[in-house]
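Lecture 7 notes: from sequence to structure.

We start with a single chain of 114 residues. Read the sequence below before looking at the structure.
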Amino acid sequence: MFGLFKKANGKSEEEKRAEALEYTKKVQFDPVPLDRVETELSDDLRAVLNYTPVNYYATKDSYLLCIFYYNEDYTEIYMRFEYRTNDLPKGKTRLYSLDKELMRDILRKFGQSI
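Now the structure, written as tokens:
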């Protein structure tokens, strides 16, 4: 009877695989509409390098959160964007698979290195 009230888990195999990876890293960008993000990234993943990094503590009201899921040797990396308002998710993109070089270039915009 209690099984009737369980929420169905509609995650794809790729989402389950990404979330099972050992490490995550989060960075924030100035807010960009998710439909624009989806369009730009489906054309070229390097379009993310055109987004403006933002300090989370300076703009908590609205920002674009980028979440990386990766393993220890960076051979498997996934990236997802979430639009957040007042720290609550308002939508997310699909997962994108990327290479270590692109992740390195994105994190360099934040003064981080891998």
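The mean pLDDT is 90. Keep this in mind for problem set 3.
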